[in-house]
Amino acid sequence: MGVDWWAWVSFGVFVVVLFGVDLFLFGRGDSDISLRRAAFWSVGWTALGLVFTGLLFVWQGSDAAGEYLAGFLIEKSLSIDNLFVFALVFSYFAVPRRLQRPVLFWGIVGALVLRGVFILAGAALIDAFHATIYAFGAFLIATGLRMATHRGVEIHPERNPLLRLMRRVLPMTPDYRGDRFTVREHGRRLATPLFGALVLVASFDVIFAVDSIPAIFGVTRDTFIVFAANAFSLLGLSALYFVLAGMLDRFRYLNLGLAAILVLVGAKMVLSDFVHLPIWLSLLAILATLVAAIGASLLRDSDAVTQRLS
């Protein structure tokens, strides 16, 4: 669909306002974020993302709405996988729970800006070189297979090249300085561990975008839909983290479900010139895969609890 410049500007302003609401209302105060509060905000942001489907349906028709919904579900489900890495980063830096919120927020904002660059670059490549779509598809299939067969891969934050570069430019203080990312001490600008956590959260989210951006291009080539799906999937991600932080290990089959989705979308891209699947079928396959992966995880966890009690 063709979107006028004013629609892009209006949507951009709308997204900025939403992130501002998320920052100043959800993250206000220094008190610990309760599970109830985090769940309320997470459900609210997810509902808003789903409501946008109806707006697109009225504005651009059923095809655009279906493409957006499929893309939103892909991006939202892949973003859950990011939370495992965020938990690892916070553990590595021993970030107090009350200080995790600003790190998540600004890391996600930075990632959204960089994803916008990735989306424009990806769209330009596909327009200029049609074969790019096959390369994206093959990459997603390989990524999905690797995700399914290497579930125990460890991530080592201390090996992150961006963190190493940051430590050379800005020496890091040994402990926290309240909620400040940098401080000036003895005439030098120093980074706090909070800034180190921010750098890792943003960099890892950009790395994850290398998978998610090609995946959504397998559903739609419309850059507006791609960006909207990414924006709404990242909104409320920090709230979702506080909801799932204590039970991330229960979703043991989620990686298999995400791997299956990546392979499915990759195959769809590779075969796009020969097989044209209706968007409703792609949407149904994504939903069924997610429900099966989450359901199997919860069932396995329930069986494990039952065995321990018996």
Write the layout of secondary structure elements.
Layout: H1 5-26, H2 35-60, H3 62-93, H4 97-128, H5 132-149, H6 161-169, E1 182-185, E2 188-191, H7 193-217, H8 223-234, H9 237-244, H10 254-270, H11 279-309
Helix pairs in contact: 2-3, 2-9, 3-7, 3-8, 3-9, 3-10, 3-11, 4-7, 4-8, 5-7, 5-10, 6-7, 7-10, 10-11
Characterise this structure.
The chain has 310 residues and is mainly α. Helices cover 75% and strands 3% of the residues. It has one domain (5-305). The chain has helices spanning 5-26, 35-60, 62-93, 97-128, 132-149, 161-169, 193-217, 223-234, 237-244, 254-270, 279-309, and strands at 182-185, 188-191. Helix 2 (35-60) packs across helix 9 (237-244) and helix 3 (62-93) packs across helix 10 (254-270).
Spatially, the strands of the biggest sheet line up as 1-2
**What's the number of domains?**
1
Strand content: under 5%
Provide the low-confidence segments as ranges.
none
What structural class results from the helix and strand content?
A: mainly alpha
User: What is the count of β-strands?
Assistant: 2
Helix/strand order, N-terminal first? HHHHHHEEHHHHH
Sketch the major β-sheet: 2 strands, antiparallel
Q: Average pLDDT, to the nearest integer?
A: 81
Shape: globular
Distance between the termini: 58 Å
Radius of gyration: 20 Å
Continuous helix count: 11
User: Helical content, roughly?
Assistant: over 70%
Outline:
The chain has helices spanning about 5-25, 35-60, 60-95, 95-130, 130-150, 160-170, 195-215, 225-235, 235-245, 255-270, 280-310; strands at about 180-185, 190. It has about 300 residues and is mainly α.
